[in-house]
TrEMBL record:
<feature type="domain" description="Thioredoxin">
    <location>
        <begin position="29"/>
        <end position="164"/>
    </location>
</feature>
<dbReference type="InterPro" id="IPR036249">
    <property type="entry name" value="Thioredoxin-like_sf"/>
</dbReference>
<protein>
    <recommendedName>
        <fullName>Thioredoxin domain-containing protein</fullName>
    </recommendedName>
</protein>
<dbReference type="InterPro" id="IPR013766">
    <property type="entry name" value="Thioredoxin_domain"/>
</dbReference>
Length: 164
């Protein structure tokens, strides 16, 4: 009987400590997680940027490449939607093209006016590609003002339901 009481006390303490700190988001790639840090120098205006610097607004981080037609179309439609409708959103466009010239020409042709465009020239072998688990395809993450993921892989038509 004495061991049963001791076991009960241990289980009670263990269960109580498992709830401590659970209200603070942890790092990861799921909705409710704090997005992994991104540090880079923007390609178009050579600005040093840290994703954490963009707080105070929503941030939509979109991963794409010129060789992936679906991700390129998504990049264009999201950029157009944000530019025309949402001044509460910072759009971060990250390409995994290995050649700057191809990236810059595509941005010009697609009329991407996101102030934050970046080409990760290491492509699919980059740390960023692996850290965001993009081996299953390109996508995007919508972050709130605190860098917490509130949506994944959204389209331009879905954006208003998260922003308004």
């Amino acid at each position: 009987m004495r061991y049963v009481k001791w076991l009960f006390v241990v289980l009670l303490i263990t269960s109580l400590t498992s709830f401590v700190g659970k209200d603070k988001p942890t790092g990861g790639l799921n909705i409710g997680d704090v997005a992994p840090a991104i540090k880079f120098r923007t390609t178009l205006n050579n600005q040093l940027l840290n994703l954490k610097d963009l707080k105070k607004k929503y941030v939509l981080v979109n991963f794409w490449a010129t060789y992936d037609a679906k991700s390129r179309m998504t990049n264009v439609s999201l950029n157009n939607a944000i530019r025309k409708t949402f001044n509460k959103v910072n759009f971060v466009s990250i390409s995994f093209d290995e050649y700057q010239s191809i990236f810059k020409e595509t941005v010009r042709k697609d009329r991407i006016v996101a102030p934050i465009c970046y080409a990760e020239t290491k492509g699919e072998s980059s740390r960023l590609y692996k850290e965001y688990s993009l081996d299953r395809g390109f996508g995007n993450y919508l972050l709130d003002e605190n860098g917490v993921i509130i949506a994944k892989d959204i389209s331009a038509s879905q954006l208003p339901s998260f922003i308004n």
